[in-house]
Amino acid sequence: MAIELGSQPEMWARAAELRAEQSLLPARGERIAVVGCGTSWFIAQSYASLREAGGHGETDAFAASEAFVDRGYDAVIALTRSGTTTEVLQLIDGLRGRVRTIGLIGDAESPLVDLVDQAVTIPFADERSVVQTRFATTAFALFRAALGEDLTGAIADAERAVAEELDPVLTDAEQYTFLGRNWSVGLVQEAAIKMREVSQSWTESYPSMEYRHGPIAIAAPGRVTWQFGEAPEGLADDVAATGAHFEAGALDPMAELVRVQRVALARARARGLDPDAPRNLSRSVVLDA
User: Fold this and answer.
1) Which segments constitute the SIS domain (predicted)?
2) Each residue of 29-46: pLDDT tens digit?
């Protein structure tokens, strides 16, 4: 995990240069859905928010098992590292001949490659670890570049995130709540699940403006409230009043996620856990027929 995590700036730079692959993604104005499971679903949420907010077209994100795709979409994107996840394969198979399907896939030899109408494969970002780090963020980097974003700043921020010394306030906390706004909401959900998977930590995640509608009750000394991107006015003071530490993430939210991945890894090592093989998890969820 450490090697894969640290390679993310290089992976994002490679994704930003994949012009042919980016051109296979839906064009501006198309109405689309993006589906995935677990980490891929959270990245789909961030892409959907970013794409629609940028005026590129109506974009919905669904967990593959709960997708409502019979809504006249121009295309459906399936995001999956392995290309073997049962729910994704079943959903895409059911759409064959009815709507254009695109797969953004880590394993170029996976069965999904032959099921979709267009396969965008990024095997250079695939991973040995059960836990996703670089595939998810590299896929999002490709999405962002396809929307016309310049990733230079995000890549520089990721380099800082990989190299910085971790603050014990972050690595030694009892509990973590991750907050985000707009397209970073999906990323904070990914931050929370990453911490749970890797280090068995107590984590939660919410849209920033929702935090004061109940979840702030969990804030206390020895706990961390971690904001991705700009915080709502007054939120830092409200958290400080509880005695919790407010971490105002100053990096690009995608690079802020790298910081969280590093904290998760450090906590796993401190607890004697294997970060590459979390309990009860496998690289891909393949269900019996």
Assistant:
1) 20-159
2) 999 999 999 999 999 999
Residue 55: left if φ>0, alpha if ψ -120 to 50, beta else—which one?
Answer: left
Residues forming beta bridges with residue 62, ordered by sequence position: 35
Domain 164-270 homologous superfamily, CATH: Glucose-6-phosphate isomerase like protein; domain 1 (3.40.50.10490)
State the Rg of the chain over Cα: 18
Query: What's the predicted TM-score (pTM) here?
Result: 0.95
φ, ψ of residue 200 in degrees (nearest 5): 55, 35
Handedness of CA 88, 94, 96, 99 (dihedral sign): negative
On whether the CB atoms of residues 112 and 93 are closer than 8 A, the answer is no
Domain with CATH 3.40.50.10490 in the chain: 2-146, 164-270
Give the SS3 label for residue 74: coil
Supply the CATH classification number for the domain 2-146.
3.40.50.10490
Distance CA 25, CA 12 (A): 17
Q: Is residue 136 within 8 Å of residue 39, measured between CB atoms?
A: yes
SS3 annotation, 89-142: HHHHHHHCCCCEEEEEECCCCCCHHHHCCEEEECHHHCCCCCCCCHHHHHHHHH
C-alpha to C-alpha distance for 61 and 59, rounded to whole angstroms: 7
Cα separations (Å) of 52 from 32, 75, 182, 239, 268? 10, 15, 11, 31, 37
